[in-house]
Amino acid sequence: MDRKWAALNLTKPSALRGEEELHLLGWNVPPEELIHIPEHWLTYQEPPASVNYLLGLLYIFFFFASIIGNGLVIWIFSSAKTLRTPSNMFVVNLAICDFMMMLKAPIFIYNSFNRGFATGHFGCQIFAFMGSLSGIGAGATNACIAYDRYTTIAKPFDGKMTSTKALVMIIAVWMYTLPWGVLPLLEFWGRFVPEGYLTSCTFDYLTKTFDNQMYVGVIFTFSYVLPMSLIIYYYGQIVSHVISHEKTLREQAKKMNVDSLRSNQNQQSQSVEIRIAKAAITVCFMFVASWTPYAVLALIGAFGDTSLLTPGVTMIPACACKFVACIDPYVYAISHPRYRMELQKKLPWLAIKESCGDDSTSTTTESTAATTPATPAAPAAT
């Protein structure tokens, strides 16, 4: 507590930048709120006002990009009869998770423009709780999407997805996700605390107690390792299946002394094998690239050298996670012809100009699974 009071009162009047005194983080936090802030952050100098303002502006961009993009995905996929398929139920659920991920952005924006812990403990709990549900829910939903793509391609007759099965899986996703948000919210196991510049909140990965380290290890396993492993496994199986299928076709064509058994192969710019491989690699790369830094950050905080975790460093992985939640809906817009056609019908002023011919090979998510799996988002509260 002495260190926290020191952080509250300590300034450095001898080190001035213009007319502004340099404070330590937490200097403007009421004493009753200091108990909720890990002491680690209170030892760092407050960033220049321009850094907080820049982050606030960045999150304003993230907020509108995500709300508009994911809002359109939820609206179009839910209202268009041609898109109301069992597989697309997962797409809608993922868009809901991404929508929720950035719905809490106004808390961060308000904190940033007030340079700190302005919304207090209550705002912190709302921010972290919504981030936990949306992040872990998105990771689990992406695992379901990977499973659906795998069964559609590798087992087209045995693995047909039904609306009932999809609904049960979505309910299971939220039942799986809810405890990871409720437990730290009630401080039954773990807790939600500010991080970085005290403008965002997440689960406590800095407290060096056995219970808290166990919590970090468990949530790391079930919200990151498990969904990532399933995604990589199923997309790896898709690539393996397609490669094997293409090899069989080539061997059969060779025996029949023909160039190919595919009548339209010469009209395609890429073989199915290449397209599936690229899509699978992209999906895995996006998931790993966006969430691995944050997962590593949490492990360092719980089990490693916490001096590596400066406030500025921790803001970078958090921004990367939010960025993925923003670009997901635009990936759908690029890769899904039927979605673009529905957008063209409902919002003609967008001037999308999608022709019906582009949709000849993709009228549902099931048929497009071989070419464009959805990009995953991810699994932790940030």
From TrEMBL:
<feature type="transmembrane region" description="Helical">
    <location>
        <begin position="315"/>
        <end position="335"/>
    </location>
</feature>
<keyword id="KW-0297">G-protein coupled receptor</keyword>
<keyword id="KW-0675">Receptor</keyword>
<dbReference type="InterPro" id="IPR000276">
    <property type="entry name" value="GPCR_Rhodpsn"/>
</dbReference>
<feature type="transmembrane region" description="Helical">
    <location>
        <begin position="53"/>
        <end position="78"/>
    </location>
</feature>
<feature type="transmembrane region" description="Helical">
    <location>
        <begin position="166"/>
        <end position="186"/>
    </location>
</feature>
<feature type="transmembrane region" description="Helical">
    <location>
        <begin position="125"/>
        <end position="145"/>
    </location>
</feature>
<feature type="transmembrane region" description="Helical">
    <location>
        <begin position="279"/>
        <end position="303"/>
    </location>
</feature>
<keyword id="KW-0812">Transmembrane</keyword>
<keyword id="KW-0844">Vision</keyword>
<keyword id="KW-0807">Transducer</keyword>
<comment type="similarity">
    <text>Belongs to the G-protein coupled receptor 1 family.</text>
</comment>
<feature type="domain" description="G-protein coupled receptors family 1 profile">
    <location>
        <begin position="69"/>
        <end position="332"/>
    </location>
</feature>
<keyword id="KW-1133">Transmembrane helix</keyword>
<keyword id="KW-0716">Sensory transduction</keyword>
<keyword id="KW-0681">Retinal protein</keyword>
<dbReference type="GO" id="GO:0009881">
    <property type="term" value="F:photoreceptor activity"/>
</dbReference>
<protein>
    <submittedName>
        <fullName>Ultraviolet sensitive opsin</fullName>
    </submittedName>
</protein>
<dbReference type="GO" id="GO:0007601">
    <property type="term" value="P:visual perception"/>
</dbReference>
<keyword id="KW-0472">Membrane</keyword>
<feature type="region of interest" description="Disordered">
    <location>
        <begin position="358"/>
        <end position="382"/>
    </location>
</feature>
<dbReference type="InterPro" id="IPR001760">
    <property type="entry name" value="Opsin"/>
</dbReference>
<dbReference type="GO" id="GO:0016020">
    <property type="term" value="C:membrane"/>
</dbReference>
<dbReference type="GO" id="GO:0007602">
    <property type="term" value="P:phototransduction"/>
</dbReference>
<keyword id="KW-1015">Disulfide bond</keyword>
<keyword id="KW-0157">Chromophore</keyword>
<dbReference type="InterPro" id="IPR017452">
    <property type="entry name" value="GPCR_Rhodpsn_7TM"/>
</dbReference>
<feature type="compositionally biased region" description="Low complexity">
    <location>
        <begin position="360"/>
        <end position="382"/>
    </location>
</feature>
<dbReference type="GO" id="GO:0004930">
    <property type="term" value="F:G protein-coupled receptor activity"/>
</dbReference>
<dbReference type="InterPro" id="IPR050125">
    <property type="entry name" value="GPCR_opsins"/>
</dbReference>
<keyword id="KW-0600">Photoreceptor protein</keyword>
<dbReference type="Pfam" id="PF00001">
    <property type="entry name" value="7tm_1"/>
</dbReference>
<feature type="transmembrane region" description="Helical">
    <location>
        <begin position="90"/>
        <end position="113"/>
    </location>
</feature>
<feature type="transmembrane region" description="Helical">
    <location>
        <begin position="214"/>
        <end position="235"/>
    </location>
</feature>
<keyword id="KW-0325">Glycoprotein</keyword>
